[in-house]
Design brief:
CATH topology of the largest domain: Alpha-Beta Plaits
Number of strands: 13
CATH class of the largest domain: Alpha Beta
Enzyme class: hydrolase
Protein name: GTP cyclohydrolase III
Helix content: 25-40%
Strand order of the largest sheet: 1-2-13-12-11-8-10-9
Radius of gyration: 20 Å
GO molecular function, one term: GTP cyclohydrolase IIa activity
Organism: Halogranum amylolyticum
Catalytic activity: GTP + 3 H2O = 2-amino-5-formylamino-6-(5-phospho-D-ribosylamino)pyrimidin-4(3H)-one + 2 phosphate + 2 H(+)
Largest sheet: 8 strands, mixed
Number of domains: 2
Length: 292
């Protein structure tokens, strides 16, 4: 059982602060791996294309995918830009087909999709990527617009299918942005992000993505408060970067992510490293406690 105590919050927007030692949610993640078909050879045929033209194409395609998936409450992350990872709880097969058709109509390249599901996001992505691998190489000119895998059935969905953790760097502006040149600040943030992403992937099967500025968004299985404290401690010890995190659960990535954002704001206000937001009309915030 979770250890629980309660205090009234001084904030009008927060009804109750609850101190927990762990979470008991069970997650059910749906991920989609989007892969540009035969993209490498296309960039040099009939001759190498201008780099900024390629960067513009990639950024516009990502923006279109993000807008489409976001309309269903999903999240998208660019990873390597010729490959995208989307959290697509809430998107059925027809929505995926519509996305694929829209991109085909608007771009000189096609996109293949693989869908995977699992309790751990890493397992879901493994399944999604396997559908693409089994259909052929990413640089196979004959492999185009693959669609593999099945979305989650509505009958197995729940209001807490997803757990999203939103991390940011403590005092990033004072410590990095206002003191270092932009490249050195970037390297410092990237050092912390890389340490966090590798740790969460290897220890928990969670997937963390850089989200700009000093922000990292992680799609996680149901982790305990101790797990989040341990992740923050690991990054501090190995990368010398201090983090805080807000955590939320929800039916879609958007719902869970907004709860995580609210919780992160409370981290800043209360100067605590880990906060959960259980949502509701007046959010009930859980400040992670490691007291026995």
């Amino acid at each position: 059982m979770a250890h629980e105590t309660t205090d009234h919050s001084p904030s009008d927007s927060v009804a109750l602060i609850t101190y927990w030692t762990h979470s008991t949610n069970v997650t059910n993640t749906q991920l989609t791996h989007l892969q540009l078909d035969n993209y490498g050879p296309w960039t040099v045929t009939p001759e190498p294309r201008r780099e900024m033209d390629l960067q513009t194409l990639q950024s516009r395609l990502f923006a279109d995918v993000a807008q489409f998936v976001g309309g269903y409450g999903g999240y998208v992350f660019p990873t390597r830009y010729d490959n995208l990872v989307a959290v697509t709880n809430g998107l059925d097969r027809r929505a995926h087909e519509s996305l694929q058709e829209s991109l085909d109509n608007r771009y000189p390249i096609t996109v293949s999709l693989g869908i995977g599901t699992g309790r751990r996001p890493a397992d879901a992505l493994d399944a999604a990527s396997t559908h693409l691998h089994e259909a052929g190489s990413a640089q196979d000119g004959d492999r185009t617009q693959v669609f593999g895998g099945d979305p989650l059935a509505e009958s197995v969905r729940s209001d807490e299918d997803l757990e999203v953790a939103h991390f940011d760097v403590d005092d990033a502006t004072d410590v990095y942005t206002d003191r270092l040149n932009e490249y050195d600040a970037y390297l410092a943030i990237e050092r912390g992000y890389s340490a966090l992403a590798r740790y969460l992937r290897e220890e928990h099967g969670a997937l963390a993505f850089f989200a700009g500025g000093d922000n990292v968004v992680a799609v996680c299985p149901a982790l305990s408060d101790r797990d989040y404290h341990d992740a923050i401690d690991h990054v501090r010890e190995t990368a010398s970067v201090d983090l805080k995190v807000g955590v939320g659960a929800g039916y879609t990535a958007q719902e869970a992510g907004m709860k995580a954002k609210h919780a992160l704001e409370h981290c800043r206000e209360e100067q605590v490293p880990v906060v959960r937001d259980e949502g509701g009309e007046r959010p009930k915030l859980q400040i992670a406690s490691l007291d026995p």
